[in-house]
Amino acid sequence: MPDLLSKKRELNQSGRYQHITPESAGWKYVGFDAYSLSEGDTHTFDAGSDTELCLVFVAGKADTTLGGQPLGVIGERLDPFERTKPYSLYVTAGDSATITAVTGMDLAVCSAPGRGTYPSRLIGPDDVGAEARGHGNNQRYVHNILPDDKEADSLLVVEVYTDEGCTSSYPSHKHDRDAPPEETQLEETYYHRLNPPQGFCIQRVYTDDGDLDECMAAYDKDVVMVPKGYHPVATMAGYDSYYLNVMAGPVRKWLFTWEEDHAWINSPVYEEKHSR
Q1: Apex CA 77: angle with CA 232 and CA 199, to 5°?
Q2: pLDDT tens-digit series, residues 141-189
Q3: Cα 198 to Cα 78, 101, 125, 185, 207, distances in angstroms
Q4: Which residues are within 8 A (CB) of 235 and not within 5 positions of it... i.e. 6 or more apart?
Q5: For residue 196, cis peptide bond before it (omega within 30 degrees of 0)
Q6: Could you report the per-residue pLDDT of 196-210, keeping only the tens digit for each?
Q7: What domains does the chain contain, in order, with CATH numbers?
Q8: CA-based nearest residue to 59, from 31, 96, 28, 84
Q9: What is this enzyme's class at the first EC digit (predicted)?
């Protein structure tokens, strides 16, 4: 199995520092790239005939054309830890988007199989649902960029904020069985950011049978790949966490099961303990 931790690399000529393909990850569906762009940099992203893209403006603004139609300058937040909702572009199969950075930019390019079922579109802040999850030291805040009730062929995209000293993607859950309505098989990437940026968080990826059990320190702009199993994240004192999740699989539905030993964290017992 390929290494599950993809460290941030030196920028290539296009400003890319993460490049994960289904082939490099050893799976079938999810691809992920991350770019650091300077003002004036221009890039065109072609979805290809059998791929769809979601371009997430993690930070920065760009003059944008989508499917040949100019959108003008889009983007708002200049740092993901502003915690405002992002701008994103859904690019359907066979279509393309061109962006010219008007500020420094952190751009995430999420990819998965596409059939061109739905048209390309701008996903603005008003299109992004927000919710708080968890209690006590298991609290996090979520922006649903491309959830399973929004139009796409394969991609599911969400960003999550977790404060220092808290856990996230917890209680441990998994989505590695193609068995709806109980569970769906979804590959997943975690693109990690830390504030301040010299920090790190801990992520464990493991299965019930112990066939996979890896624990990793993820630093700013690293990516963790989750081919199967449970995958909780723990933050460290002094450092807040942001991560962008990309998921895809044979069925576009986020259905998961909890690890039995830790499911009680969802119960009123835990809530009552932390409401005193």
Answers
A1: 40
A2: 999 999 999 999 999 999 999 999 999 999 999 999 999 999 999 999 9
A3: 18, 25, 29, 34, 30
A4: 162, 163, 164, 165, 166, 167, 168, 201, 241
A5: yes
A6: 999 999 999 999 999
A7: 5-266 (2.60.120.10)
A8: 84
A9: isomerase
Q: How many CB atoms are located within 10 Å of the residue 206 CB?
A: 19
Residue indicated by tokens 């044979």: 250
Phi, psi of 90 (to 5 degrees): -95, 125
The residues facing 261 across adjacent strands are: none
List the one residue out of 57, 145, 47 whose CA is nearest residue 101. 57
- Work out the pLDDT band at 275, boundaries 50, 70, 90: low
User: If you search the block for the tokens 């769906």, which residue do you land on?
Assistant: 184
Q: Are 101 and 61 in contact (CB under 8 A)?
A: yes
What tokens appear for 128 in the block?
């992004």
- Model-wide pTM > 0.85: yes
